Amino acid sequence: MNTTEEWERTRSPLIPAADLAEYNDLPDPVPHTDAERTALIRLLTRPKSRIGTVAVGHSRDLASRAGADAFATTWKARGGKILAVVDWPETAASWLRPARRLTAPGPDAWVVAAAPLGFAQLARRLRHSTDWDPARCYAFASLRDSRLPALAGPDTLHGLRGASTDGGTWDIRHRWVTSYPPEKTAD
To answer: N or C: which end of the chain has fewer CB within 10 A?
Structure first.
């Protein structure tokens, strides 16, 4: 790595163009499932979680927007409060505006429905410029990709949890994404 590249990495939280090019084959979000939304709600309402207020963020694609809307409707129906709904583009100059809008209301947790490339950029900005904590962030299945922690950078997403399309869950610990099967329910 030359001096210019090192300076760029420390000056800006943006992912360098060469790194983005390596990950341009990440999948687009697909429609979210009822099982996924149920697992997400279960993560947020586990015993002793004390989560009442949520800020919701989403990419501008149809699947992410629909997932965020469905989550918000379900959360409000359960008596929860949505403090903000924030969207962002897949490419932006800095992602500072959506990062600030997502964190400004001071929610108990964040819920994200997004495409991996745009979210990786936003997550880097969130860690660099706000008090966002990935351990208080919950995501839809579209972010359950083993390449996401490397793209976002060291420990940027450590603690992020999410739901899988089949109703299972997953989490990120350092650079590893671990998936868990759906909980067994008594019929």
So the answer is: C
